[in-house]
Every structure is written in C-alpha cells, then in structure tokens.
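discrete fold record:
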Amino acid sequence: MSATTVPDRRRVLVRGELVHDLTELTTGDPGFRLVLPTPLPILVLRERTGERVDLLTGERRALGSALCGPSTRPWAVREVVGTRVTVLRLRPEALVRLGITDPRPLVDGARELASAGSAAGLEPCVDGAELDRVLAERATARDEALRRRLGAAVGLILAERGLVAAVEVARAAQLPPSELFRVLDRTLGTGPEQLAAAQRLRSTVRDGVPAGAPGGRVLAVLGALRTLPPNELARLGLDHGVLELVLRHGAELAAG
C-alpha cells in the first residue's frame, strides 16, 4: 500500500429507491487502499477481479463485483491498475429487498454477484440514477413501515456520527429497543451498537484524513488510537488487540 495509492474518485449523492450514494474509482497505482467501516450495505461493481484483505486475520481473497453488508472494521483492497470500480452505498433495507434472507454472513463479508440474488449481473456505471432504477426493478416491493423505521434508525447514526445510544436509535425508529434489535438483525445482520461504533470509527478517521487519502496516512490516524483507554476504544468497535492486528497487517501490506 504505497504512499501513492490514491485512486481518482468521484462521489455522487443519489438518495434513490435503493442507492444512498455512489463513488466512482479508477485505480492508477498497484498498491492497496484502506476501506473504512460503514453502517450501510455496499454494492461494489468491478470491471476486473481485485483482492480483498481482512486486516484482522491477514486473509486474502480474490473478489470481483460483490454485495457486502455493513462493515465494523477497516479492510484493505487492491484493484488492477486502470480498473473502473463503482461503489454504491445502499439504503438500510436493500439487502432484504435484493433477496438476501440472512444478512449476518455479509457483516464484514461479501458475496460475489453471481450468487447475490437480484444484484447479479450488474456492471460498473457512473450513472447512479440508472443503477438505482435497475436495482429497484429487480427488488421486492417496498415495505413503507420498515423503510421509515430503518431510515430513521440508521439516519440518526449517520447524522450524529455514531455518537448515539441504542435507546436513542430505538426512539428515532419508534420501536421498543428489543424490537429494534430484532429488525436490525433481520435486515442488516447486526445491532445498533455495532452500527454506531462503525460510524464512530469512520468519522474519527475522516476527521484526520479525507476520503481517498493514501493508506499510510489512514494507518497513522489508526495508530494514534493506541493512546485511547479501553472503554473509549470499545466505543469504536475495537480493542487494543484488534487494533494492533489491523495495524500490523496494514503495515505488512505497505511494505509490499
């Protein structure tokens, strides 16, 4: 992950039926880039197969276009130089509407589009509205109550940078806390604390470096978190052991 691993990128806010926003990347460097956690599902469309690295275990996996659930920790990704990649952050109910019956394996995971239900067969495209239209045509019908509650819950987490308690998220969704846990587990595969922690970590790193910053700068910001006490690190979804593994594997990638 060399210091020059900064892909050309363009982000577009879509806010369509299923697509929240779109980022178009074209990689000009053979190194790895770091991908930060997010409480939203992700659809990644690639022209050519890339490589995804779990910074917790060091496991490497070849990965083409894929549907991913929310992520709770940083990952590393390497694309073939010159490859066009379209990254769509999806609305919270998207996994269910695209035919994913159990989203839990997709949390910090990915499913190749060939086996990803209604999302299969899509190609990279800069037109977010067109991709949203195609996805909406393939998706199941909208459940207005579910959409409203998930939108309120995850919307609060995004708006408040993850600095919210589960009871506040439940209040925003107009659900009892126990029912909120059930709804989020069924649709996103995890609970409100994990989603909020993912957004806290994302926002913390973004305060130090902008989107598209070289991986070395992202690792430096993550390294500074070593000074946090355990309870503060836990609010970011990490502990010191996990953080050291992420930093070690990230440094190994940077060293080539």
